[in-house]
């Protein structure tokens, strides 16, 4: 089955598409692949879940109402700043039927669910026959954590000596710390402290829990995600990549400088 993933080639448009055989068993497979693609792009759990739900309903519709033996259905994703568009293309040109389900009819609910989950929903005929049913899903606003504190004197001195070679200049060490991860209620806060010289050397970070000063420095590799712009957080960080996050008003530091 052909796969297309333009995430690395085209920095502005993140798109993904894949063909699936027109069978019921491929519906959960399509959902899973959509989940994986969106998670890879740093979408939130809620966005991934909504897109997977919509994909499942549109794919089930394609399999049940537009089945042509030997002709696949295609699932495509486009993710931009405005949100995610899910498209499912099948080989039957007739428009998707909007049915009014009976209360006990689970199958008829598909398109109503899609409509309820999306900000816009429609279909278009394909030039060579068949149709594409699409649903646009809104992007969720994601706030950066923004929790603030100060780097203790002892760690400032240690940060100057991190890495190989000459000690850094005091101006190279960030003392006024601000957690740059997606807003979170569990886990440590993390803040960037200092860039390390040289390529692929990562950066110095620190972490803390609210109400306590940082006690340790960490040398962490950079997050490898670079589309649409390089992610400013460390590798395997929790939450969305930095380009998804919107800055909130800075909070007051919880501790004062020493
Ligand atoms: Zn935080
Ligand atoms: Zn990242």
Automatic annotation (TrEMBL):
InterPro entries: Anti-sigma-factor_SerPK, HATPase_C_sf, HATPase_dom. SUPFAM superfamilies: ATPase domain of HSP90 chaperone/DNA topoisomerase II/histidine kinase. It comes from the Bacteria. Transmembrane segments: none annotated. Gene3D superfamilies: Histidine kinase-like ATPase, C-terminal domain. Residues 27-135 form the Histidine kinase/HSP90-like ATPase domain. Signal peptide: none annotated. Pfam families: HATPase_c_2 (PF13581). One of its GO terms (molecular function) is ATP binding. Keywords: ATP-binding, Kinase, Nucleotide-binding, Serine/threonine-protein kinase, Transferase. PANTHER family: ANTI-SIGMA-F FACTOR RSBW (PTHR35526:SF3), ANTI-SIGMA-F FACTOR RSBW-RELATED (PTHR35526). This is ATP-binding protein. The lineage of its organism: Bacteria, Bacillati, Actinomycetota, Actinomycetes, Kitasatosporales.
């Amino acid at each position: 089955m052909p796969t297309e993933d333009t995430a690395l080639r085209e920095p502005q448009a993140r798109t993904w598409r894949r063909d699936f055989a027109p069978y019921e068993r491929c519906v959960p497979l399509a959902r899973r692949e959509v989940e994986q693609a969106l998670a890879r792009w740093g979408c939130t759990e809620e966005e991934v879940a909504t897109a997977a739900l919509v994909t499942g309903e549109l794919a089930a519709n394609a399999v049940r109402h537009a089945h042509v033996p030997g002709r696949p259905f295609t699932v495509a994703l486009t993710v931009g700043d405005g949100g995610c568009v899910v498209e499912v293309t099948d080989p039957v040109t007739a428009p998707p039927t909007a049915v009014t389900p009976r209360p006990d009819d689970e199958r008829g609910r598909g398109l109503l669910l899609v409509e309820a989950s999306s900000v816009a929903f429609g279909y278009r005929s394909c030039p060579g026959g068949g149709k594409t049913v699409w649903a646009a899903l809104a992007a969720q606003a994601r706030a950066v954590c923004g929790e603030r504190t100060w780097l203790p004197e002892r760690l400032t001195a240690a940060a100057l000596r991190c890495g190989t070679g000459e000690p850094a200049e005091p101006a190279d060490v960030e003392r006024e710390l601000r957690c740059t991860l997606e807003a979170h209620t569990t886990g440590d806060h993390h803040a960037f402290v200092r860039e390390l010289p040289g390529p692929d050397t990562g950066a110095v970070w620190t972490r803390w829990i609210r109400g306590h000063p940082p006690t340790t420095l960490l040398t962490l590799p950079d997050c490898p995600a670079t589309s649409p712009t390089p992610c400013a957080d460390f590798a395997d960080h929790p939450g969305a990549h930095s380009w998804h996050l919107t800055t909130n008003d800075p909070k007051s530091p919880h501790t004062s400088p020493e």
